[in-house]
Design brief:
Distance between the termini: 39 Å
Largest sheet: 3 strands, antiparallel
Structural class: mainly alpha
Radius of gyration: 20 Å
Helix content: over 70%
Order of helices and strands: HHHEEEHHH
Number of strands: 3
């Protein structure tokens, strides 16, 4: 409602050009606020299942025996679960925010912005699969307690790699 009122006020003050000029900054912060449950929950579920499937396949390919049971990956040393926080939704949101911001900053054309946004989301998801696979390998090689120690550093690392990848993509 506040955004709608703000758009109306901008239209009354400066007309269509003001609405167009201020549309991105007004709508940009909506990517960071919690999304409606009807959108976020199915997205988290799909990301979690796809992440678990790809991580299990990759871990097996790398020589770590792993079995997927829903969003839990079982190894010989224990289980690694992919809950909502580890689904990739935070990386997804961060990559979307950075891609949208850089698209606006560099004044990309519409289709280039869409490509940049999709590339950022794909990069974030790919990095999250690498993180999950790494944690599955850590669990198998060093035990469940080592997963808790490696979890946060791995998360920060993939966030940095995702953001650096977006900057490289913007530079290219």
């Amino acid at each position: 409602a506040i955004i709608g009122i703000t758009f109306c006020a901008l239209y009354l003050i400066g007309g269509r050009s003001w609405v167009h000029h201020f549309a991105f900054p007004l709508l940009f912060f909506l990517i960071a606020v919690p999304w409606p449950s009807r959108i976020e929950e199915p997205l988290i579920t799909k990301l979690s299942h796809l992440n678990a499937a790809l991580s299990t396949w990759t871990a097996n390919w790398l020589g770590t025996p792993a079995i997927r049971k829903g969003v839990v990956i079982q190894t010989g040393a224990g289980m690694v679960g992919i809950d909502a926080a580890c689904s990739g939704i935070r990386s997804f949101q961060a990559a979307a925010m950075v891609a949208l911001f850089l698209g606006e900053l560099f004044r990309y054309a519409f289709f280039r912005r869409i490509f940049f946004l999709l590339s950022g989301v794909a990069l974030a998801f790919g990095c999250n699969v690498v993180r999950t696979t790494y944690l599955v390998r850590v669990c198998d090689l060093k035990g469940k307690s080592a997963v808790n120690m490696a979890h946060d550093p791995a998360g920060f690392t993939i966030l940095g790699v995702t953001l650096a990848g977006l900057l490289v993509l913007a530079w290219l």
